[in-house]
């Protein structure tokens, strides 16, 4: 079986969601930073503060989309990778759009449904500071190690 994570990433988009000025909220961005250090194709890595309606067009151009975000609740092993399906209900807000609703928009507007996953990484500290907590750094390390060995 061919590994999803070739250095080129082919037709896979990885979206890191977060804010690196809010401690562990920057886990999504730090994940992308780690992939860059591993020499992954930076054209397939997208840094976002939050997902917006317009992002439906972006993801419609990919076969696979992986969303990476910090998570405030406890996760076994400090991270969780889950298959993501389009949301059956949609609530509009101008602030942000959850990944499952973005997938629904992508399907409704562009008739595209990329294979999608969400990688949640447990965070602990959310103050204004550019630095991950020590526990979050360990969870990030574990998530990256697991992710680099995945086959889809």
Strand-helix topology:
Elements lengths: L11 E6 L9 H11 L7 E4 L6 H5 L4 E8 L7 E5 L15 H12 L4 E8 L11 H15 L4
Parallel strand pairs: 1-2, 1-3, 3-5
Antiparallel strand pairs: 4-5
Helix pairs in contact: 1-4
Description of the structure:
This protein has 152 residues and is of the alpha/beta class. It has one domain (12-148): HybD-like (Rossmann fold), CATH 3.40.50. Helices cover 28% and strands 20% of the residues. The protein has helices at 27-37, 55-59, 99-110, 134-148; strands at residues 12-17, 45-48, 64-71, 79-83, 115-122. Strands 2-1-3-5-4 form a 5-stranded mixed beta sheet, with helices on one face. Helix 1 crosses helix 4. The longest helix is centred in the last third of the chain and has 15 residues, at 134-148. The chain starts with 11 loop residues before the first strand and ends with a helix. Mean pLDDT is 90; it is low at 1-6.
Number of domains: 1
Series of secondary-structure elements, N-terminal to C-terminal: EHEHEEHEH
- CATH architecture annotation: 3-Layer(aba) Sandwich
The strand line-up of the biggest sheet is 2-1-3-5-4
Indicate the CATH class.
Alpha Beta
Radius of gyration: 15 Å
CATH superfamily: HybD-like
Mean pLDDT: 90
Question: N-to-C terminal Cα separation, in Å?
Answer: 8 Å
Q: Please estimate the helix content.
A: 25-40%
In CATH terms, what is the fold-level topology?
Answer: Rossmann fold
């Amino acid at each position: 079986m061919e590994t999803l994570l070739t250095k080129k990433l082919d037709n896979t988009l990885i979206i890191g969601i977060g804010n690196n000025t809010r401690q562990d909220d920057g886990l999504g961005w730090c994940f992308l930073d780690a992939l860059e250090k591993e020499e992954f194709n930076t054209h397939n890595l997208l840094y976002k503060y939050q997902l917006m309606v317009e992002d439906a067009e972006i993801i419609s151009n990919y076969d696979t989309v992986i969303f990476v975000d910090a998570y405030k609740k406890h996760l076994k092993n400090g991270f969780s990778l889950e298959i993501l399906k389009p949301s059956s209900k949609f609530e509009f807000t101008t602030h942000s759009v959850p990944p499952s609703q973005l997938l629904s928009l992508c399907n409704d507007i562009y008739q595209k449904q990329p294979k999608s996953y969400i990688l949640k990484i447990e965070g602990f500290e959310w103050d204004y500071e550019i630095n991950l907590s020590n526990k979050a750094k360990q969870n990030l390390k574990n998530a990256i190690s697991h992710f680099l060995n995945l086959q889809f």
